[in-house]
Amino acid sequence: MIHKKIAFIGSVGSGKTTLIKNLSNTETINTDVKSSIDIGKDLTTVGMDYGEIRIDEDLKLGLYGVPGQRKFSFMWDFVKQGLWAVVILIKNNSTESIKELEYLLDYFAIKQDTPCLIGITHSDLIKGETSKKHIKNILNKRNLVLPIYSINANLKENAELIFRTLILLEETNNGT
Amino acid sequence: MEHEELKFLIGKTVRQAEYVNKINLSSADGFTYHSFSTDGQSEDDKLSAVSSSLTSLSNAATSQLMNTELISTVIESADGNMVLLKTRYRGKDAVLCFISGPQLIVGKARYYAKKLAEAISTIPADQSAV
Ligand SMILES: Nc1nc2c(ncn2[C@@H]2O[C@H](COP(=O)(O)OP(=O)(O)OP(=O)(O)O)[C@@H](O)[C@H]2O)c(=O)[nH]1
Ligand SMILES: [Mg+2]
């Protein structure tokens, strides 16, 4: 059995916990607690989300979600070890969330050969296409070309898209 | 003064337990309410964040994997022990972190930490900060 590790990173409220809950075949490990400051929602992750996707008999994907708050970056260090792929979530039209992208690309040392994709969440609620342009600019500065999708973290249907893309990226990077 | 009753309770524990290196109270999401340290130096905010993460993970392990309730998280090291306890402070979920030197056996550390956590949870919520 091969176990591949995928990290879900992104700013507070970008939808990491929600997406992992919707993608996982198993009940996820949840470490959300009540936020004591106003972050636009009640709960926030302080430990780690964990879920799994069984692709087939030989392949299992481990889904690791980190807290978005930077003060928990020691959890990022833990999740960073031995990663197969990274999913970066960005809240549509949120300057803060887009800004965090630069920090995360550096922190997780995302290179062109890292299987990595960007999901713009909340686009069902918040309209506007400008996020994509800003994200592309940030990637351009780093000579990165990464797939960018609009996704709804509340929908299960995104699972297929995300994993097929990551597997495809890996194959492309390996030249197969 | 802010957190006066809390400071008093911590001071009492420090005198009773001796060998205390650090006592830190933070919100469940890792913001420091008050931190006491014998060596004066502090990385309070980091300790608060780590306490919050560890407690949430212990909580997930007990409630979601062992089907029971978390009592405490104890970390033993060559230089002493760390006891983490969930408590309430002024009506809000909080985490108490108690770090003592190797002279204090782990059972005693747990005893003093628990006693303090219980006392903290009785501080009334309406004792508002100034
Ligand atoms: N409509 C809509 N709601 C979303 C979407 N993505 C996330 N949400 C909602 O936004 C909130 C995001 O919360 P989380 O999943 O906790 O975000 P997170 O990234 O885990 O945040 P932290 O753990 O605090 O860093 C939840 O209430 C979700 O239901 C989306 O694409 N569309
Ligand atoms: Mg989360």
Automatic annotation (TrEMBL), chain A:
The domain of life for this entry's organism is Bacteria
A Pfam family reported for this protein in Swiss-Prot or TrEMBL = ATP_bind_1
Q: Which InterPro entries match?
A: Gliding_Motility_GTPase (IPR052705), Gpn (IPR004130), P-loop_NTPase (IPR027417)
The residues forming the signal peptide are none
Keyword annotations from UniProtKB, A to Z: GTP-binding, Hydrolase, Nucleotide-binding
- Provide the family line: Belongs to the GPN-loop GTPase family.
Give the protein's recorded name. ATP/GTP-binding protein
Give the organism, scientific name: Marinicella sediminis
From TrEMBL, chain B:
Name of protein: Roadblock/LC7 domain-containing protein
| Superkingdom field | Bacteria
Roadblock/LAMTOR2 domain location: 15-85
| InterPro entries listed in its UniProt record | Roadblock/LAMTOR2_dom
Q: Which Pfam families match?
A: Robl_LC7
Give the source species. Answer: Marinicella sediminis
